[in-house]
Design goal:
Elements (H helix, E strand, L loop, with lengths): L2 H21 L2 H16 L3 H5 L8 H7 L5 H12 L13 E5 L7 E5 L4 H19 L8 E4 L7 E3 L2 E4 L1 H5 L5 H4 L2 E2 L2 H4 L4 H12 L4 E5 L2 H15 L3 H4 L5 E5 L4 H11 L4 E8 L2 E5 L8 E3 L5 E7 L22 E7 L6 E12 L2 E8 L13 H12 L5 E10 L8 E10 L4 H15 L1 H8 L7 E4 L4 H8 L17 H8 L1
Parallel strand pairs: 1-5, 3-6, 3-7, 7-8, 8-9, 17-18
Antiparallel strand pairs: 1-2, 4-5, 9-10, 10-11, 11-15, 12-13, 13-14, 14-15, 16-17
Length: 495
């Protein structure tokens, strides 16, 4: 056992013990976070406008600070982007994480001196919890790859900006830099297809032990490796035993990954975003990710079915229940206040608090009142694939409200790697699973308002071609699982 392995195990034990301290005191930890945030920002423009000196508890906070999304907070963010200090948080941000926006165009998410360390520590601690639980630490002696955006940063009014993954690349600990791949030069390549080819050339003969990234883009990397060498990735990288991912549910990709790798490998799920690092998988055998209650973020939770009503209840951590779909609301030490990040979550445990990402509040299908969410379509697909050799590359679902004939239906666009022998039987299996999960959908089918779903096959690499056509190939970009309109569907039909 190497010194590096021994040190990793000792460090893992230390971090595990620190985590237990706050995980066992969730309510008190979150109350402390809220008080610290209010005290730190009471002299900012936002704090003055929202009467922070008068806020003593959560009830006061709800009274003075409304729930907002980026567009609603944009007047404050614009002032920060223009170089003003003490607007949302004391001083100026260290960075802006630049992301794709909707009605506002590009979004500039502030990262501050106080918030930045938590992004780094959370990713590190996820690996350390894995080491503590499994005792596996030999991978620290091998090479690790993190598929991410370019680390090249721009500057706006004296503040550097770029993709979050590119910013984080500047904070890789020194003890990992010798093990980290790809090279800085390759990581700076903007064109994703060119970048993947360069990464393959750099890594195919290395001792890769850890691979990390969004599953859809790691899949592309694995496919190119297999094309180059003609062997499963697990034979090429004999010591590859840990896959770290975030951004999307891994389950729809699992069968394809295991085929590409040639064997099973352990995995760690992360829940990072530009706005904060919210959770990571702390145990291999437990469902859900540990919600990080001591990471400079105060959480509120609004039941998704109440979200668009007037004055919905804003629950704190001690008031949530398992299995309910909540919209995640955050207030952070980067100056986001009552901020709706757009994600919905469900709790799988309240001792400690673990969550799964169930979808996006704006990504759903409710063209007929069914309110289907991402977690439901992913679970239905997984159930229909169990016990089969069906493998998929990617999928999305949209409503067909005005078919040329017959009843309306949900249209599933699926890119198969190994398709079913009987496509109709497979679609019925998915539909049956959907009806068991969503009573509204079941009522619409049984009431003959909708017919059972139809599958439209997308050609190989069709989703990649779609993402390239809209300028979102690679990096942190993801395919929306659900759309309540047919804008993506029509583009896929053209492909």
């Amino acid at each position: 056992m190497s010194l590096k392995t021994i040190a990793a195990k000792l460090f893992a034990l230390r971090i595990y013990n620190k985590t237990q301290q706050w995980a066992k005191n969730p309510v008190a930890t979150q109350q402390k976070i809220l008080k610290h945030l209010i005290r730190s920002a009471k002299h900012t423009q936002f704090g003055i406008d929202h009467h922070f000196p008068q806020i003593k508890d959560h009830d006061d906070f709800v009274k003075h600070v409304p729930v907002r999304d980026y567009e609603a907070l944009k007047t404050y963010i614009d002032r920060v982007v223009n170089g003003e200090a003490d607007i949302l948080w004391k001083g100026k941000p260290l960075y802006f994480a630049k992301t794709s926006g909707t009605t506002s165009g590009a979004k500039y998410i502030p990262l501050t001196k106080e918030s930045m360390p938590f992004h780094i520590e959370a990713a590190r601690n996820a690996i350390l919890h894995y080491i503590h639980e499994t005792g596996k630490a030999d991978f620290v002696n091998g090479k690790m790859i993190f598929l991410q955006g370019s680390p090249l940063l721009e500057e706006k009014n004296g503040i550097k900006l770029g993709r979050l993954s590119g910013i984080v690349a500047h904070f890789v600990p020194k003890y990992l830099q010798k093990n980290r791949m790809p090279s800085w030069e390759t990581n700076c390549i903007e064109d994703w297809e060119t970048k993947i080819d360069a990464i393959v050339a750099e890594t195919y003969d290395e001792n890769m032990t850890v691979i990390s990234g969004i599953p859809s883009w790691v899949q592309m990397y694995f496919e190119k490796l297999r094309q180059k060498e003609g062997t499963p990735v697990g034979e090429l990288f004999k010591n590859f035993d840990l896959f770290i991912y975030g951004g999307v549910n891994y389950e729809p990709y699992r069968a394809k990954f295991e085929n590409l790798i040639g064997r099973k490998v352990d995995s760690i799920e992360l829940f990072p975003a530009s706005e904060g690092f919210f959770a990571y998988q702390d145990l291999q055998k437990e469902k859900g990710m540990l919600l990080l209650l001591n990471a400079g973020i105060f959480y509120e939770f609004i039941q998704s079915e109440e979200f668009y009503t007037q004055n919905p209840k804003r629950h704190t951590i001690g008031e949530v229940a398992i299995g309910i779909n909540y919209v995640l609301i955050i207030s952070t030490n980067a100056g986001l206040w009552g901020y709706n990040i757009g994600d919905t979550i469900q709790f799988t445990s309240t001792n400690p608090y673990r969550v799964v990402v169930s979808g996006r509040i704006k990504h759903y299908i409710s063209a007929f009142g069914e309110h289907v969410i991402g977690k439901e379509v992913e679970s239905a697909l997984k159930e229909a694939m169990e016990g089969t050799d069906i493998r998929i590359n990617e999928f999305t679902v949209a409503p067909q409200i005005t078919p040329k004939s017959g009843l309306p239906y949900h249209e599933w666009f699926i890119e198969f790697e190994n398709e079913p022998q009987d496509l109709v039987a497979f679609s019925i299996a998915i539909d049956d699973a959907m009806q068991r999960q969503n009573t509204y959908y079941n009522d619409l089918i049984s009431g003959k308002v909708l017919r059972t779903l139809l599958i439209t096959k997308v050609p190989v690499n069709g989703f990649q071609r779609y993402m390239k056509s809209i300028g979102k190939l690679g990096g942190q970009n993801k395919i929306a699982r659900l759309s309540n309109d047919r804008s993506m569907a029509e583009q896929l039909l053209k492909i």
